[in-house]
Amino acid sequence: MSYDEPLRLPAAAIPDDCRDWTAGRAANWSAALPSRWTFLRVRRSIAGAVTTLALCAGAWAAMLGGLWPFVAAGFAVYVLWVLARPELVWAGAPALLLGLAVQASSLPWAVTAVGAFVVVASWAAVAVRLRARGAQLEQALEAAGDGTAQVPDARAPVRRGRFLLPLGLVVLVLGVLTGVTAHLWGTVDDQRGSWVMAFYLTGLGLTALVSAWLGRHRAVALRRAPAPVLRVLVRDDAQGTTEVYAADDLAALRPLFTVELTSYDGESDEDEADTADADADAGAGAAELERLLDAVDDDVPGPVREAVLFGAPFDGAEVVVLSADEDHDQPPLTEWSAGPVRPLSPSAGVRRVAREKAREEQNRQLARQARESVVDRPPAPVRRWRAGWLDWVAAALLVQWGVWLTWAGFTEAELPSWKLALAAALGLYGAARVPVKLAWRITADRSGLWVTGLRGPRHVPWDDIRSVRRRSFELKLRWRGDDWSVAAPRWAWFERRRGLVHPYDALAAELSAMRDDPELRPTGESTTPERGRPLWPLAVVLALVWAAVLVVWG
Question: Where are the alpha helices (DSSP H) in 238-309?
Answer without folding.
Answer: 275-297
